[in-house]
Amino acid sequence: MDFKSFTTQFANLLTNVEERDGVWQLTTEPRKLHALLTELRALFAYPEDLTCVDEGEQLRVFYRLYDPASRQLAHVYVRLPHTGGHLTTASDLWRGYEWQEREVFDLFGIIFDGHPDLRRILTWDGFQGHPLLKDYQIDNEDSSWRIPEEDNDAIIDLLNR
Amino acid sequence: MLRDFRLPEFDAPPVELPELEQAHDTTIVSMGPQHPSTHGVLRLMLKMDGETVIKLAPVIGYLHRGTEKLAEHRTYTMIIPYTDRLDYLSSMYMNMGYVLAVEKLLGIEPPPRARYLRTAVAELQRLASHLIWLGTFALDLGAATMFIYPFRERETILDLFERLCGARMTYNYFRFGGVMADCPPNWIQEVHAYLHEQEVRLKEYEAVLTKNPIFLARTQRVGYISGKDAIDYGLSGPSLRGSGVHFDVRKDDPYEAYGEVDFNVATDNAGDCYARYLVRLEEMRQSIRIVRQCLEKMEDGEVQTKLPRAIKPPVGEAYVRVEAPRGNFGVFVVSDGGPMPVRVRFRSPSFANLSALDHMCRGMKLADVIAILGSIDIVLGEVDR
Amino acid sequence: MGVTSEQIAEACAHVPGGSLLLTTLDEVLNWARESSQWPVTFGLACCAIEMMATGAAHYDQDRLGVMFRATPRQADIMIVSGTVTKKMAPIMRRLYEQMPDPKYVIAMGNCATGGGPYYYDSYSTVRGADLVIPVDIYLCGCPPRPEQLLDALIELGRSYKGEHALKHLRPETANAPTLLDLVKEDG
């Protein structure tokens, strides 16, 4: 399916479309994201990247999809408020997004509903805050930092499920 | 087909899993983060039934240094040394990915000599990275002699890099619009001499490992992942090509001088550790080919375009991906016109490759976990950033 | 191994004093320890690769008696090579506690020495290994060359001179604080 036919067929799921350098740039709303990604799943098999940009008043989540067979790339953008943003998980469509969503949750604080295991992945147990937000001070010499206790309960729960 | 002999009846995955789900006397073993075989600070929590792994949960973040956050507080040029330390075994490639992304934002291109030099240096770096992989993989499986031979060859490459840019490991060699400095006199002849020797040595490594019955028993049918699952997990690099998927960014989306040189993409259909081993060996041979062609095609000229002192790209964003030795390395840079970027994102191949480790290790023995981890070749600096 | 007792006697005859050597137990033990430093494999980041290169061909630390041991119980030095993050710090402390006395620490690289040239203002790094464990030798470089690491190991070996190698048998060291005490102290 090419860009034009896709965007016409699913125009109700998209708020903005553009094709730049051969890459599909699709923008959508948070509540329509999962429906759009389900349609894209048939065309794009490879979950290349999932990340987020803090744009001051809002967060922009960015999914990058690729199809090795047709060599086609697609970017999907979703805008969320600075705090308390929720999105439906895409890990049921592509298993590669499971860890990427955990990273976005850890660093930006976006909650992915329906994710099998939404825990912090890069920062340590007991870490407060979300580091990559613009209002998180970089030189956070946490003076109350002491050698943290390890929390194995969550991982043991995961293994026993 | 890369292998010249094959185990019969290979098509089915090696172990039936339903029996494992009913195991009732299980132990949870915590492996790492300090362990000689985990290639860095990685912790693996394993649920085991005796010696068999039922489920595996990797715990990462022990080397999370906040590179992406730091990049928002540094100027564009100051970020280049940070990229060296992401995947520190293929520093040149990390430099290249970031530099290409910012060059795309700036809308500039390096001069032809710099392009060929960059490609040659990047492929030499791929050779160095695969040599370390070979050494540590063999060491993990117990072949201690095979640790020494690749490191010996790698020292020659490091000597070449030291003559070129002054550093053995974290080079900071690439600049926007070219490279830091041109190659010194006689450097090209030395590279050719090294390449000739490396071809001979590759045959030596093959003689030790490729048909070795112990090596075969430990890597064939171990760590199987099908091509479809590999794509679903977002694997890339030799881990993906070892499962039969022909995805190589150098061919799909050529950058630098890769469109002008002739080389093959190595793939193997078996999907196990042995397949990934064969793919990397073949990649080393292809890298030698690429370096030779680049050095032949290189003509005299400048190695860096003139740029203003303060780099301030126009407002916009750029996403560039390159085929690093471990896979598809992507860099996403967002600029607001100022001297420091708004966001720099490094899509690391080892992060995605590691997420598939659970899938590959189900039903394997504990010792196989080491072999599988070695075969997917992760670097924690890149996973944790 | 082919050395006979007559050959030993002949060799001793050339040593001043003949076949009788007067020394202290401490000196002999220190001399032996100098050539038998066994580090625990504690590679964290990029410096670990230079540490591995020191063990490989070209630099070959084995000729100095340096052999990597995977378990801290059999090691006597710890080479902290790489950035120490806040997540890794408790594990580093625990490993240090598990090493038997006498033990020494080499902080290899800029990150272990003082937080690193680039991570000095990061939210997740510890500014130097000496905030978590006591360090004996600080080796700077990013990463330091293998020759520098060999130099550090030789320097460490030389520093054993004058040590009372059996000091850990002395009663005053029996009540040194452990990790549990430190955690309780911080509340």
Written description of the protein model:
The complex is a heterotrimer of chains A (161), B (385) and C (187). Chain A has 161 residues and is α/β, with parallel strands linked by helices. Chain A has a single domain, classed as Beta Polymerase, domain 2 (2-Layer Sandwich), CATH 3.30.460.80. Chain A is built from 4 helices and 7 strands. Chain A is globular, with a radius of gyration of 18 Å. The mean pLDDT of chain A is 83. Chain B is built from 16 helices and 8 strands. The longest helix of chain B has 30 residues. With 187 residues, chain C is α/β, with parallel strands linked by helices. Chain C has 7 helices and 4 strands, in the order H-H-E-H-E-H-E-H-E-H-H. In chain C, strands 1-2-3-4 form a 4-stranded parallel sheet. In chain C, helix 2 runs antiparallel to helix 6 and helix 3 packs across helix 6. The chains are: A alpha/beta (161), B alpha+beta (385), C alpha/beta (187). Chains in contact: A-B, A-C, B-C. At the A-C interface, loops of A face helix 4 and helix 7 of C.
What does the secondary structure layout of this molecule look like, with pairings?
The complex is a heterotrimer of chains A (161), B (385) and C (187).
Chain A: H1 3-9, E1 16-20, E2 23-28, H2 33-41, E3 46-54, E4 58-67, E5 72-81, E6 86-88, H3 97-108, E7 111-113, H4 153-160
Parallel strand pairs in A: 2-5, 6-7
Antiparallel strand pairs in A: 1-2, 3-4, 4-5
Chain B: H1 18-21, E1 27-31, E2 43-49, E3 52-59, H2 67-71, H3 76-84, H4 91-106, H5 112-141, H6 145-165, E4 174-175, E5 178-179, H7 187-209, H8 213-219, H9 227-233, H10 238-241, H11 249-252, H12 273-297, E6 316-324, E7 327-335, E8 343-347, H13 349-355, H14 357-361, H15 366-376, H16 380-384
Antiparallel strand pairs in B: 1-2, 2-3, 4-5, 6-7, 7-8
Helix pairs in contact in B: 3-4, 4-5, 5-6, 5-12, 5-15, 6-7, 7-12, 12-15
Chain C: H1 5-14, H2 25-34, E1 39-40, H3 46-55, E2 77-81, H4 89-98, E3 104-108, H5 110-114, E4 137-139, H6 146-158, H7 179-186
Helix pairs in contact in C: 2-6, 3-6
